[in-house]
Amino acid sequence: MGRAKAGVLKKRSFSLAGHRTSVALEPAFWNAVSAIAAARGLTLAALVAGVDATREPGQSLASSLRMLALDEAARKNPLNH
Q1: What averages of pLDDT result for each successive group of 10 residues across the chain (81 residues)?
Q2: Which of 4, 46, 52, 78 has the least CB density, counted as fewest CB within 10 Å?
Q3: Cα torsion for 74, 43, 46, 60, to the nearest 10°?
Q4: Domain residue spans in the chain?
Q5: pLDDT at 6
Q6: DSSP per residue over 32-51, as a string?
Q7: Are the C-beta atoms of 61 and 21 separated by less than 8 Å?
Q8: What is residue 49's predicted lDDT score, i.e. its pLDDT?
């Protein structure tokens, strides 16, 4: 109904280390990453640049941003086992 279809990607472009790059994520992940940036007092571009600078070799930037969002969600809402 009002929700975007699962799997629909939204691209955003950034300048990272002097190069333009595009990152495609689902809207829910962009919302989560934007909220993390705001909570940390950063622009979205600054947060993405920080993730890019510290990601594991071979890991895509999109995957790194998704993991950031999932890690933050898990930190805020730990599962009770």
Answers
A1: 68 94 97 97 97 95 97 83 44
A2: 78
A3: 50
A4: 26-76
A5: 63
A6: HHHHHHHHTT--HHHHHHHH
A7: yes
A8: 97
